Amino acid sequence: MTAQDRLEGGADPDAFRLLDDEGRLPDGTNPGLPDDKLVEAYRWMVFSRMLDERVTSLQRQGRVGTYSAVYGQEASVIGSAFALDPARDWIVPQYRETPAIMRHGYPLTTYLLYLLGNPLGGQLPEGVRVTPLQIALAAQLPHAVGLALGLKMQRLDGVVMTYCGDGASSEGDFHEACNFAGVVKAPVVFVLQNNGYAISTPRSKQTAAATFASRAEGYGFPGERVDGNDFLAVYDVAQRAVRRARSGGGPTLIESQTYRLYPHNTADDQSRYVPPEELEVRRKSDPLPRLFAYLAGRGLISDEQVEVMREEINAQIGEAVAAAERHPRPTPGQLFDYVYARPPRRLQQQREELTASADGGES
To answer: Lower CB count within 10 Å: N or C terminus of the chain?
Structure first.
């Protein structure tokens, strides 16, 4: 197996990991988090998966727009986010970090409004240190570096964590952001979720580099590879990167080697490009059973507790869906809101023409 083929067919044996496939931790190893935080992390992972299932169902019913599930990447997302302090650190997401931004304060109802196409879905509450979701690949990365540099110039000890996929790392914005971050020693952590595919393009056809983490050397800062389906390992690597950034050491590039068990999004058919035998093999490294096995082995959780947890999460999601759907539907004119402080005449004219043609219109 070549370095390029590792993620598509199996895990990288050289990536940092703590938990084995059965959820066992080597004797004497400190998990890095207190017991209650470990259980909290597992709950967030269950929440993420249940939200994926619910929203995918809603999309199939035509009730929300296209959705990109986290399914299979929960340890990568939650493990990295748990290294942050929501009171002082920032998350600059792409579009597959839903549980991370919600742990950071993004309300679930607001997120559902975003999926409903309601402009209110982009209005974050005061004090929530999360930037809007970014669909254009890697376009958020220069902004993340600028935000991190701003924190540094203000002598604040906040850290910015920003996410992208392996596909986004082929964009110019990725290289420009990493290069600038290295030059100015910005307190930023780049979490590159290498899930095997850039939509349908396998990792082996995207880069000749042995690893994505190796690119960091060219930018003058460390790059680390981690088993992205091992929550404890991801947290360990992320908290060290955050600590380094906070102390003035500059950026880190984390290549979190995970796998996408769901299609790229609800408009995608992964059966057209993912070999079924590959998907079956990778299901065995599902991060949820792995962390559950570790917690259950220590007596921190049981099947009965998980069932209660799922019932609570199901009610939480159901209430948020109902609340979001009670909001008035967006009007055509809202398409023009928040674009200009003083809209030019041509935009005003377009708004007038659109609203005049809409049933019921609006002023």
So the answer is: C
